[in-house]
Write a sequence for this structure.
Protein backbone atom coordinates (compact mmCIF):
# COMPACT_ATOMS: atom_id res chain seq x y z
CA UNK A 1 0.00 0.00 0.00
CA UNK A 2 1.26 3.44 -0.96
CA UNK A 3 2.06 6.05 1.65
CA UNK A 4 1.53 9.77 1.11
CA UNK A 5 2.84 12.72 3.09
CA UNK A 6 0.08 15.26 3.63
CA UNK A 7 -0.24 18.49 5.56
CA UNK A 8 -2.76 17.79 8.28
CA UNK A 9 -4.18 19.99 11.04
CA UNK A 10 -4.90 18.60 14.52
CA UNK A 11 -7.39 20.64 16.53
CA UNK A 12 -7.45 20.76 20.32
CA UNK A 13 -9.23 22.75 22.94
CA UNK A 14 -7.19 24.79 25.41
CA UNK A 15 -7.87 26.92 28.45
CA UNK A 16 -5.97 30.24 28.55
CA UNK A 17 -4.95 32.05 31.69
CA UNK A 18 -6.37 35.50 32.30
CA UNK A 19 -3.22 37.11 30.93
CA UNK A 20 -3.25 34.90 27.83
CA UNK A 21 -6.94 35.56 27.19
CA UNK A 22 -6.36 39.31 27.39
CA UNK A 23 -3.35 39.12 25.08
CA UNK A 24 -5.24 36.96 22.58
CA UNK A 25 -8.19 39.35 22.64
CA UNK A 26 -5.87 42.20 21.65
CA UNK A 27 -4.33 40.04 18.93
CA UNK A 28 -7.76 39.11 17.53
CA UNK A 29 -8.69 42.81 17.48
CA UNK A 30 -5.51 43.78 15.63
CA UNK A 31 -5.99 40.96 13.11
CA UNK A 32 -9.56 42.10 12.47
CA UNK A 33 -8.47 45.75 12.07
CA UNK A 34 -5.66 44.93 9.63
CA UNK A 35 -7.92 42.67 7.53
CA UNK A 36 -10.71 45.26 7.34
CA UNK A 37 -8.41 48.19 6.61
CA UNK A 38 -6.53 46.28 3.91
CA UNK A 39 -9.85 45.22 2.36
CA UNK A 40 -11.05 48.84 2.41
CA UNK A 41 -7.83 50.04 0.74
CA UNK A 42 -8.07 47.40 -1.98
CA UNK A 43 -11.74 48.16 -2.59
CA UNK A 44 -11.06 51.90 -2.77
CA UNK A 45 -8.17 51.42 -5.21
CA UNK A 46 -10.39 49.44 -7.56
CA UNK A 47 -13.40 51.76 -7.27
CA UNK A 48 -11.41 54.99 -7.76
CA UNK A 49 -8.41 53.96 -9.84
CA UNK A 50 -9.51 50.65 -11.39
CA UNK A 51 -6.30 49.19 -9.94
CA UNK A 52 -5.65 45.92 -8.16
CA UNK A 53 -3.59 46.19 -4.99
CA UNK A 54 -1.11 43.34 -4.58
CA UNK A 55 -0.27 41.43 -1.42
CA UNK A 56 3.19 43.04 -1.36
CA UNK A 57 1.59 46.49 -1.32
CA UNK A 58 -0.65 45.65 1.61
CA UNK A 59 2.40 44.31 3.44
CA UNK A 60 4.08 47.70 3.01
CA UNK A 61 0.88 49.37 4.22
CA UNK A 62 1.02 47.27 7.40
CA UNK A 63 4.55 48.51 8.10
CA UNK A 64 3.37 52.11 7.68
CA UNK A 65 0.38 51.56 9.96
CA UNK A 66 2.66 50.25 12.71
CA UNK A 67 4.81 53.39 12.46
CA UNK A 68 1.82 55.71 12.51
CA UNK A 69 1.33 57.10 16.08
CA UNK A 70 -2.45 56.69 15.78
CA UNK A 71 -2.17 52.95 15.06
CA UNK A 72 1.09 52.22 16.83
CA UNK A 73 -0.73 49.65 18.96
CA UNK A 74 -0.52 47.31 15.97
CA UNK A 75 3.09 46.64 16.99
CA UNK A 76 2.02 45.17 20.35
CA UNK A 77 1.01 41.64 19.18
CA UNK A 78 3.25 39.25 17.28
CA UNK A 79 3.86 40.21 13.64
CA UNK A 80 2.93 36.69 12.43
CA UNK A 81 -0.88 36.89 12.82
CA UNK A 82 -0.99 40.30 11.10
CA UNK A 83 1.00 39.04 8.13
CA UNK A 84 -1.09 35.88 8.00
CA UNK A 85 -4.37 37.80 7.81
CA UNK A 86 -3.04 39.67 4.74
CA UNK A 87 -2.29 36.29 3.14
CA UNK A 88 -5.82 35.14 3.95
CA UNK A 89 -7.21 38.29 2.33
CA UNK A 90 -5.11 37.65 -0.77
CA UNK A 91 -6.45 34.09 -0.88
CA UNK A 92 -10.02 35.40 -0.61
CA UNK A 93 -9.42 37.73 -3.57
CA UNK A 94 -7.84 34.91 -5.58
CA UNK A 95 -10.96 32.81 -5.10
CA UNK A 96 -13.16 35.77 -6.03
CA UNK A 97 -11.22 36.39 -9.25
CA UNK A 98 -11.53 32.69 -10.15
CA UNK A 99 -15.29 32.98 -9.49
CA UNK A 100 -15.12 30.39 -6.72
CA UNK A 101 -16.55 32.64 -4.01
CA UNK A 102 -18.19 35.99 -3.38
CA UNK A 103 -16.37 39.27 -2.82
CA UNK A 104 -14.53 39.32 0.55
CA UNK A 105 -16.55 40.73 3.45
CA UNK A 106 -15.50 42.82 6.41
CA UNK A 107 -15.01 41.05 9.72
CA UNK A 108 -17.37 41.98 12.57
CA UNK A 109 -16.44 41.84 16.22
CA UNK A 110 -18.07 39.04 18.19
CA UNK A 111 -20.23 37.83 15.29
CA UNK A 112 -18.28 34.67 14.48
CA UNK A 113 -15.08 32.79 15.23
CA UNK A 114 -12.01 34.98 15.70
CA UNK A 115 -8.61 33.53 14.90
CA UNK A 116 -4.91 34.30 14.64
CA UNK A 117 -2.32 32.28 12.72
CA UNK A 118 1.26 31.97 13.95
CA UNK A 119 4.06 30.87 11.63
CA UNK A 120 6.97 28.70 12.76
CA UNK A 121 9.06 31.71 13.81
CA UNK A 122 6.27 32.99 16.07
CA UNK A 123 5.83 30.01 18.39
CA UNK A 124 7.84 27.23 20.01
CA UNK A 125 6.97 23.55 20.40
CA UNK A 126 9.00 21.55 22.90
CA UNK A 127 8.12 18.39 24.81
CA UNK A 128 4.49 18.57 23.76
CA UNK A 129 4.06 22.18 24.86
CA UNK A 130 3.11 25.10 22.60
CA UNK A 131 4.19 28.60 23.54
CA UNK A 132 3.13 31.58 21.42
CA UNK A 133 5.26 34.63 20.78
CA UNK A 134 4.99 37.39 23.40
CA UNK A 135 3.43 35.01 25.93
CA UNK A 136 5.20 33.96 29.12
CA UNK A 137 3.52 30.56 29.59
CA UNK A 138 2.68 27.65 27.24
CA UNK A 139 -0.94 26.96 26.36
CA UNK A 140 -2.91 24.61 28.60
CA UNK A 141 -3.95 22.21 25.82
CA UNK A 142 -6.21 19.20 26.29
CA UNK A 143 -4.38 16.59 24.17
CA UNK A 144 -7.39 14.51 23.14
CA UNK A 145 -5.20 12.63 20.65
CA UNK A 146 -1.44 12.61 20.10
CA UNK A 147 0.32 14.30 17.24
CA UNK A 148 2.08 11.94 14.78
CA UNK A 149 5.36 10.67 16.15
CA UNK A 150 8.21 12.97 15.25
CA UNK A 151 5.90 15.59 13.76
CA UNK A 152 7.20 19.17 13.77
CA UNK A 153 4.44 21.83 13.69
CA UNK A 154 4.86 24.34 10.89
CA UNK A 155 1.92 26.56 11.77
CA UNK A 156 -0.41 27.15 14.69
CA UNK A 157 -3.84 28.79 14.51
CA UNK A 158 -5.51 29.94 17.73
CA UNK A 159 -9.24 30.64 17.63
CA UNK A 160 -12.13 31.61 19.87
CA UNK A 161 -15.65 30.73 18.79
CA UNK A 162 -18.86 32.62 19.52
CA UNK A 163 -19.44 30.41 22.57
CA UNK A 164 -16.20 31.65 24.14
CA UNK A 165 -14.29 28.39 23.67
CA UNK A 166 -10.61 28.47 22.69
CA UNK A 167 -9.07 26.06 20.19
CA UNK A 168 -5.61 25.57 18.75
CA UNK A 169 -5.09 23.98 15.34
CA UNK A 170 -1.59 22.57 14.82
CA UNK A 171 -0.46 21.99 11.22
CA UNK A 172 2.04 19.16 10.69
CA UNK A 173 3.22 16.85 7.93
CA UNK A 174 1.81 13.36 8.46
CA UNK A 175 2.26 10.10 6.57
CA UNK A 176 -1.04 8.60 5.45
CA UNK A 177 -1.17 5.00 4.20
CA UNK A 178 -3.74 4.14 1.51
CA UNK A 179 -6.56 1.85 2.53
CA UNK A 180 -6.48 -1.68 1.15
CA UNK A 181 -7.92 -1.67 -2.35
CA UNK A 182 -11.48 -2.96 -2.71
CA UNK A 183 -13.84 -3.54 -5.64
CA UNK A 184 -16.80 -1.95 -3.85
CA UNK A 185 -18.44 1.12 -5.39
CA UNK A 186 -21.33 3.10 -3.98
CA UNK A 187 -23.72 5.81 -5.05
CA UNK A 188 -24.87 8.31 -2.42
CA UNK A 189 -28.16 10.21 -2.57
CA UNK A 190 -28.65 13.08 -0.11
CA UNK A 191 -32.02 13.62 1.51
CA UNK A 192 -33.84 14.99 4.52
CA UNK A 193 -36.07 12.15 5.75
CA UNK A 194 -33.07 9.86 5.37
CA UNK A 195 -29.87 11.85 5.61
CA UNK A 196 -28.15 9.65 2.99
CA UNK A 197 -29.27 6.66 0.97
CA UNK A 198 -26.69 4.29 -0.50
CA UNK A 199 -27.02 2.28 -3.71
CA UNK A 200 -26.85 -0.85 -1.54
CA UNK A 201 -30.30 0.03 -0.22
CA UNK A 202 -29.03 1.20 3.17
CA UNK A 203 -30.54 4.40 4.55
CA UNK A 204 -28.76 6.57 7.11
CA UNK A 205 -31.16 8.05 9.64
CA UNK A 206 -31.22 11.84 9.85
CA UNK A 207 -30.40 12.74 13.48
CA UNK A 208 -31.90 16.24 13.06
CA UNK A 209 -29.46 17.78 15.53
CA UNK A 210 -31.02 21.23 15.36
CA UNK A 211 -34.52 19.90 16.02
CA UNK A 212 -33.35 18.16 19.21
CA UNK A 213 -32.24 21.49 20.68
CA UNK A 214 -34.83 23.71 19.03
CA UNK A 215 -36.73 24.33 22.28
CA UNK A 216 -33.54 25.28 24.13
CA UNK A 217 -32.48 27.51 21.26
CA UNK A 218 -35.87 29.26 21.13
CA UNK A 219 -35.83 29.88 24.89
CA UNK A 220 -32.31 31.30 24.79
CA UNK A 221 -33.22 33.51 21.82
CA UNK A 222 -36.30 34.87 23.64
CA UNK A 223 -34.21 35.73 26.68
CA UNK A 224 -31.70 37.48 24.44
CA UNK A 225 -34.41 39.58 22.77
CA UNK A 226 -35.54 40.92 26.16
CA UNK A 227 -32.12 42.22 27.18
CA UNK A 228 -31.13 45.83 26.67
CA UNK A 229 -28.64 46.35 23.87
CA UNK A 230 -25.13 46.98 25.10
CA UNK A 231 -25.79 45.61 28.59
CA UNK A 232 -23.77 42.92 30.37
CA UNK A 233 -26.90 40.76 30.66
CA UNK A 234 -27.34 40.86 26.89
CA UNK A 235 -23.75 39.66 26.45
CA UNK A 236 -24.47 36.74 28.81
CA UNK A 237 -27.69 35.89 26.96
CA UNK A 238 -25.87 36.02 23.61
CA UNK A 239 -23.31 33.58 25.00
CA UNK A 240 -26.08 31.14 25.96
CA UNK A 241 -27.45 31.22 22.41
CA UNK A 242 -23.96 30.65 21.00
CA UNK A 243 -23.41 27.66 23.28
CA UNK A 244 -26.58 25.98 22.04
CA UNK A 245 -25.49 26.55 18.44
CA UNK A 246 -22.03 25.19 19.26
CA UNK A 247 -23.51 22.03 20.80
CA UNK A 248 -25.59 21.45 17.66
CA UNK A 249 -22.61 22.02 15.36
CA UNK A 250 -20.38 19.69 17.40
CA UNK A 251 -22.88 16.83 17.22
CA UNK A 252 -23.39 17.35 13.49
CA UNK A 253 -19.65 17.44 12.79
CA UNK A 254 -19.03 14.30 14.85
CA UNK A 255 -21.77 12.37 13.03
CA UNK A 256 -20.57 13.44 9.58
CA UNK A 257 -16.96 12.58 10.40
CA UNK A 258 -17.90 9.06 11.45
CA UNK A 259 -20.10 8.53 8.39
CA UNK A 260 -17.57 9.91 5.89
CA UNK A 261 -14.73 7.87 7.43
CA UNK A 262 -16.77 4.68 7.14
CA UNK A 263 -17.76 5.46 3.54
CA UNK A 264 -14.16 6.06 2.46
CA UNK A 265 -12.85 3.01 4.30
CA UNK A 266 -15.38 0.58 2.75
CA UNK A 267 -15.57 1.81 -0.88
CA UNK A 268 -13.04 2.32 -3.67
CA UNK A 269 -15.29 4.60 -5.74
CA UNK A 270 -17.86 6.98 -4.27
CA UNK A 271 -20.35 8.73 -6.55
CA UNK A 272 -22.22 11.73 -5.18
CA UNK A 273 -24.41 14.52 -6.53
CA UNK A 274 -23.28 18.09 -7.07
CA UNK A 275 -25.88 19.90 -4.96
CA UNK A 276 -26.35 23.66 -5.13
CA UNK A 277 -27.03 24.08 -1.42
CA UNK A 278 -26.85 27.87 -1.68
CA UNK A 279 -29.84 27.88 -4.02
CA UNK A 280 -31.72 25.10 -2.24
CA UNK A 281 -31.83 26.94 1.10
CA UNK A 282 -33.86 29.67 -0.58
CA UNK A 283 -36.81 27.32 -0.23
CA UNK A 284 -38.29 28.64 3.02
CA UNK A 285 -40.05 25.36 3.75
CA UNK A 286 -36.85 23.30 3.62
CA UNK A 287 -34.13 25.83 4.46
CA UNK A 288 -33.80 24.83 8.13
CA UNK A 289 -33.72 21.10 7.40
CA UNK A 290 -31.21 21.50 4.55
CA UNK A 291 -28.90 23.65 6.67
CA UNK A 292 -29.07 21.13 9.51
CA UNK A 293 -28.19 18.25 7.17
CA UNK A 294 -24.70 19.62 6.45
CA UNK A 295 -24.49 18.30 2.87
CA UNK A 296 -21.63 20.62 1.84
CA UNK A 297 -19.65 19.76 4.96
CA UNK A 298 -20.10 16.05 4.32
CA UNK A 299 -18.94 16.36 0.71
CA UNK A 300 -15.78 18.20 1.77
CA UNK A 301 -15.00 15.49 4.32
CA UNK A 302 -15.48 12.69 1.78
CA UNK A 303 -13.31 14.44 -0.81
CA UNK A 304 -10.29 15.16 1.35
CA UNK A 305 -10.38 11.77 3.08
CA UNK A 306 -10.65 10.02 -0.29
CA UNK A 307 -7.62 11.98 -1.51
CA UNK A 308 -5.68 10.90 1.58
CA UNK A 309 -6.49 7.20 1.41
CA UNK A 310 -6.37 6.48 -2.31
CA UNK A 311 -10.09 6.47 -3.05
CA UNK A 312 -11.94 8.04 -5.99
CA UNK A 313 -14.84 10.49 -5.70
CA UNK A 314 -16.99 11.10 -8.79
CA UNK A 315 -19.36 14.08 -8.71
CA UNK A 316 -22.48 13.78 -10.86
CA UNK A 317 -23.99 16.80 -12.57
CA UNK A 318 -26.70 18.41 -10.48
CA UNK A 319 -29.17 18.35 -13.39
CA UNK A 320 -28.95 14.58 -13.89
CA UNK A 321 -32.52 13.22 -13.25
CA UNK A 322 -31.44 10.49 -10.84
CA UNK A 323 -34.78 10.26 -9.01
CA UNK A 324 -36.98 10.16 -12.12
CA UNK A 325 -34.90 7.69 -14.14
CA UNK A 326 -35.83 4.01 -13.84
CA UNK A 327 -32.69 2.15 -12.76
CA UNK A 328 -33.97 -0.99 -14.55
CA UNK A 329 -35.09 0.18 -18.01
CA UNK A 330 -33.77 3.76 -18.16
CA UNK A 331 -37.15 5.36 -18.85
CA UNK A 332 -37.53 8.88 -17.37
CA UNK A 333 -40.77 9.52 -15.53
CA UNK A 334 -42.75 12.75 -15.79
CA UNK A 335 -43.47 14.96 -12.81
CA UNK A 336 -42.25 13.50 -9.51
CA UNK A 337 -43.02 15.82 -6.56
CA UNK A 338 -40.98 15.48 -3.37
CA UNK A 339 -43.97 14.08 -1.50
CA UNK A 340 -43.90 10.98 -3.75
CA UNK A 341 -41.52 8.55 -2.04
CA UNK A 342 -42.33 5.51 -4.19
CA UNK A 343 -43.25 5.26 -7.84
CA UNK A 344 -43.88 2.48 -10.35
CA UNK A 345 -42.26 2.53 -13.78
CA UNK A 346 -44.08 1.39 -16.92
CA UNK A 347 -41.82 -1.65 -16.94
CA UNK A 348 -43.60 -2.77 -13.77
CA UNK A 349 -40.89 -2.20 -11.16
CA UNK A 350 -41.81 -0.34 -7.98
CA UNK A 351 -39.02 2.06 -6.96
CA UNK A 352 -38.11 3.57 -3.64
CA UNK A 353 -37.33 7.12 -4.74
CA UNK A 354 -34.08 7.49 -2.76
CA UNK A 355 -32.68 4.01 -3.41
CA UNK A 356 -33.42 4.34 -7.12
CA UNK A 357 -31.61 7.71 -7.20
CA UNK A 358 -28.57 6.26 -5.42
CA UNK A 359 -28.40 3.36 -7.90
CA UNK A 360 -28.54 5.79 -10.83
CA UNK A 361 -25.87 8.00 -9.28
CA UNK A 362 -23.58 4.98 -8.90
CA UNK A 363 -24.18 3.94 -12.53
CA UNK A 364 -23.52 7.47 -13.80
CA UNK A 365 -20.32 7.66 -11.76
CA UNK A 366 -19.02 4.38 -13.16
CA UNK A 367 -19.91 5.53 -16.69
CA UNK A 368 -17.85 8.69 -16.20
CA UNK A 369 -14.88 6.66 -14.98
CA UNK A 370 -15.15 4.13 -17.82
CA UNK A 371 -15.74 6.54 -20.68
CA UNK A 372 -13.83 9.54 -19.41
CA UNK A 373 -16.86 11.64 -20.19
CA UNK A 374 -17.71 14.74 -18.22
CA UNK A 375 -15.73 16.89 -15.89
CA UNK A 376 -16.19 17.26 -12.18
CA UNK A 377 -18.59 20.24 -11.90
CA UNK A 378 -17.51 23.43 -10.19
CA UNK A 379 -18.70 23.93 -6.63
CA UNK A 380 -19.27 27.61 -7.28
Amino acid sequence: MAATVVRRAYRYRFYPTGEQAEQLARTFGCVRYVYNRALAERSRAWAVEQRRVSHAETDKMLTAWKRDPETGWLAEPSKGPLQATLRHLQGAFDKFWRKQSAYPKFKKKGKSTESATYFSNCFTYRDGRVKLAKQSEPLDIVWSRPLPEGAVPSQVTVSRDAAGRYFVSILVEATVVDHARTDTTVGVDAGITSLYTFSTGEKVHNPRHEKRDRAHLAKAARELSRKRKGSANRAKARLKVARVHARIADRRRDHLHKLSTRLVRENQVIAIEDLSVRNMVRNRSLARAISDAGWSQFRSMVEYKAAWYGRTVVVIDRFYPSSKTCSACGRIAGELPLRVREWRCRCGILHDRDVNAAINIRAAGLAVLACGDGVRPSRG
